[in-house]
Amino acid sequence: MVRMKARTTTRGKKIAKDTWKTKVWYNIYTPQAFGGVLIGQTPANDPAKVIGRVAEVSLQDLINDPAKHMIRMYFKINGVSGNNATTQFIGHDTTREYIKSLVRRRMSKVTTIIDVRTKDNYKIRVKAMVLTAYRARDRHKTDIRKKTEEIIRETAKNSTFPEFVQAMLLDELNTKIYEECKKIFPIKKVEIYKSEVLEFGETSVASGEENKMLEEKKEE
Asked: Which residues form the signal peptide (predicted)?
């Protein structure tokens, strides 16, 4: 539906003004560390109004992997050049339907929420979920939670921001947690189901390897 705004002429008559004619469409791109991919467009009649808008894209669409359809990534626009808008990754989440499909009766869900810092000083809130094969005792839940926190913290400490995000989204972190926690109690599934960037760290030029963190996954 076209939005119309009325304005008054010098004769007191009102005519319709098409406000959409003053708007420009801006292309939204992911950061270079995520491949610099076009993920959408947004209209505005002033470039300043584009700053701060948030674009959502599924990880499936970003890396062409149907197995990642349940993960939604969020990018916040932080700059405009011509008709192109640059972004920064601000977090991800997982659809409720997918989470519900994982949980079964007679199993335990151990949730861990932890704030960590990467080695380039990004602060990220990470939410992880470990599902046991059957109902666990409280001491097992405590040990699983401690081990999960330890692995997430150490991985962040030894990773740059792009490296840590890749570990979260492409199952490296899930696998680490699974392999260690199954030594404590039988594990069914591990999911890093949500993240949120709380503080942005050092601004630096990412290495060529980091710039292509998702490219290899695309080509598989």
From this structure: none
Residue 120's pLDDT is: 96
pLDDT at 64: 93
10-residue mean pLDDT profile of the chain (220 residues): values are: 42 56 91 93 94 97 94 97 96 96 94 97 98 97 98 98 96 97 97 97 49 49
Domain segments of the chain: what residues?
20-93, 95-219
Beta strands 24-29; 84-94: pairing state: parallel
Q: Which residues lie closer than 8 Å to 218 by C-beta, 6 or more apart?
A: 35, 63, 64
The CB density around residue 79, as the number of other CB atoms within 10 Å, is 12
Alpha helices in the chain (DSSP H): 59-63, 96-102, 138-157, 161-169, 172-181, 208-211, 215-219
Question: CA-to-CA distance for 162 and 178, rounded, in angstroms?
Answer: 22
